[in-house]
Amino acid sequence: MTDRLFSTFKLGPIELANRVVMSPMTRSRAIGNVPNDLMATYYAQRAEAGLIITEGTSPSPNGLGYARIPGLFDEAHVAGWKKVTTAVHDAGSRVFVQLMHTGRVGHANNLPSGARVLAPSAVVAPGTMYTDQAGPQEHPVPVAMTDAEVEATIEEHVQASKLAIEAGFDGVELHGANGYLIEQFLNTASNQRTDRWGGSVENRARFALEVARRSAEAIGADRLGIRLSPYGAFGGMVADAETDALYAHLATELGKLKLVYVHVVDHSSMGTPPVPDAIKSTIRAKFGGTIVLSGGYDKARAEADLLAEKGELVAFGRPFLANPKLVSKLKSGDALAQADMSTAYTPGEKGYTDYPA
Ligand SMILES: Cc1cc2nc3c(=O)[nH]c(=O)nc-3n(C[C@H](O)[C@H](O)[C@H](O)COP(=O)(O)O)c2cc1C
Predict the structure, then answer these.
(1) What is the pTM of this model?
(2) Which pLDDT belongs to residue 1?
(3) CA dihedral sign of residues 248, 249, 253, 259
(4) Of 21, 25, 57, best ligand 1 pocket probe by most atoms within 8 Å of the beta carbon
(5) Are 346 and 52 spatial neighbours (Cβ–Cβ below 8 Å)?
(6) DSSP letter string over 251-305?
(7) Angle 75-90/147-166 helices, nearest 10 degrees?
(8) What stretches in the chain show pLDDT beneath 50?
(9) Are strands 313-316 and 20-22 parallel, antiparallel or unpaired?
(10) I need a surface site. Which of 53, 63, 98, 308 has the fewest CB within 10 A?
(11) What are phi and psi of 284, to 5 degrees?
(12) What is the bridge-based pairing of β-strands 20-22 and 118-119?
């Protein structure tokens, strides 16, 4: 019997060799925010995945909230990413870039000069942010964006999407999850605006949908996916009485835009509250297109959820850290190596490209 997980899949215009997706994972190896040869090696090592989604990558100087994360808004970034896309394609896989604007989750120490920690409202994110200069620092009170800044930030996403195609990416994933800028607009914990970008479900969804609509116009909806984390708690996000209505509306509208996939996050395997099955079913039904499942998957659960038609693709995150040849191991049933999480975000090869294949 052939496993569905290892069968091919047509994602928009591209063919994936299998249904295993490598989850987006920040690794903080982009010194000066520019992708490099080491990153190309890391991604090429993991090219057995049918599709790789890169680490969160900022479309704006203002979105580089973490230390050493890559950008995608100038020519040096495009040249750096070309190394990655070429290496992954040469190794036989496909790769989407995840566009992550960190919004209020950031610190001035991590930003280039002139950049600012922006958010829908001047509401501070809980917890601290690591900086190379001074270790962990309290999140700053973010600057509430003006209407013109909201428009400019949407445009930054559109430009980054175009640069992604120029850099050779097969597509773009918008990071609408995990408490970063797009979710900061969606969520009442971080969005207290009273203009057309806040308040009602429709208004809070407007930023996500405008970024999606205009990026899709620029590169084609069949090259644009989005990641969402309903009931997520990262970055101080909270669920409320309108959460179900919000995600139902989003999924409906994203379906009308014909995005190539919705990638649903469930971080209960990382200790956050469980995501109700009902909201996942609602998103699937209202969106109507390809669903990427994620969070705590092993082979058996992936196979079961594919057979149960909960989604078409399954993303694996932490298992890829220490198992570059994860697909081979899932096929053979070999035991998986455990990653050393102390080197998850440290610069250099150690705990990055030195896990045995
Ligand atoms: C080191 C690390 C970095 C991560 N960075 C990102 C990121 O940049 N963007 C994102 O959407 N999720 C990020 N995540 C979450 C993963 O994509 C994934 O949802 C999570 O690890 C749960 O899946 P898993 O159980 O297969 O690991 C990260 C997770 C880890 C462990």
Answers:
(1) 0.98
(2) 54
(3) negative
(4) 25
(5) no
(6) HHHHHHHT-SEEEE--GGGGTSPPPPHHHHHHHHHHH-SEEEEESS--HHHHHHH
(7) 40
(8) none
(9) parallel
(10) 308
(11) -60, -45
(12) unpaired
Q: Count the Cβ atoms, other than its own, within 10 Å of residue 338.
A: 11
Strand, coil or helix: 224: strand
- State the amino acid at position 152 in one-letter form: A
63-93 exposure pattern, b = at least 16 Cβ within 10 A, e = fewer: bbbbbbbbbbbeeebbebbbbbbebbbebeb
Cβ(48) to ligand 1 under 6 A?
Answer: no
Q: Which of 180, 231, 352, 355 is catalytic?
A: 180
Interval 146-201: pLDDT, tens: 999 999 999 999 999 999 999 999 999 999 999 999 999 999 999 999 999 999 99
Q: CA dist 244 to 94, 231, 235, 275, 284, Å?
A: 33, 9, 19, 11, 13
Ligand 1: nearest atom to the Cα of 23: 17
pLDDT score of 32: 98
Check residue 290 and give its pLDDT: 98
Task: Name the residue with the closest Cα to ligand 1, atom 22.
Answer: 295
Is the CB of 98 inside a 6 Å radius of any atom of ligand 1?
Answer: yes
Alpha helices in the chain (DSSP H): 37-45, 75-90, 147-166, 181-186, 201-219, 243-257, 277-287, 299-307, 318-322, 326-332
Q: Is the CB of 199 under 6 A from ligand 1?
A: no
What values do phi and psi take at 239, rounded to 5? -85, 150
pLDDT number for residue 54: 99
Query: Over the stretch 259-309, which tens digit does the pLDDT of each residue have?
Result: 999 999 999 999 998 899 999 999 999 999 999 999 999 999 999 999 999
H/E segment holding residue 119: strand 118-119
Query: Which atom of ligand 1 is found nearest the CA of 55?
Result: 8
355 labelled catalytic:
no
The answer to whether 322 and 355 are in contact (CB under 8 A) is yes
Structure tokens belonging to residue 238: 């909270």
> Where on the phi/psi map is residue 170: left (φ > 0), alpha (ψ -120 to 50), or beta?
alpha
Is the Cβ atom of 180 under 6 angstroms away from ligand 1?
no
